[in-house]
Sequence to fold (99 residues):
Amino acid sequence: MDLSVGLGSSDGIDFFWGDDYRWEDWHPQPRDVLELCEAIGAGNVVEETWKLGGFVIERRCYIRPNGQRVGDGSAPLPAWIRRLARHSVRTFRPWGEAA
Fold:
């Protein structure tokens, strides 16, 4: 999984990972950035996708640093629509582990 961390135009941090997930102008606590990078490196990432008729209707990616769950993605849809869709879950290997 790709990861980019940079300084934003203000005093925030821009954090981009995977397929267009992002936190921009993030104001983390001192250790938060390192913990998120370590979680991604350890493979503590899950991507969920819901498809209806071949179209992606919702996609979210969660990073799990220190037992927490933080993420980004499309706006959540109502549960009744999700029940009609095909749900898939993708996990990621730790960095350096053979595919």
Notes: Residues 3-91 form one domain. Residues 62 and 70 are 5 Å apart (CA to CA). The two ends are 12 Å apart (CA to CA). The chain has one domain: 3-91.
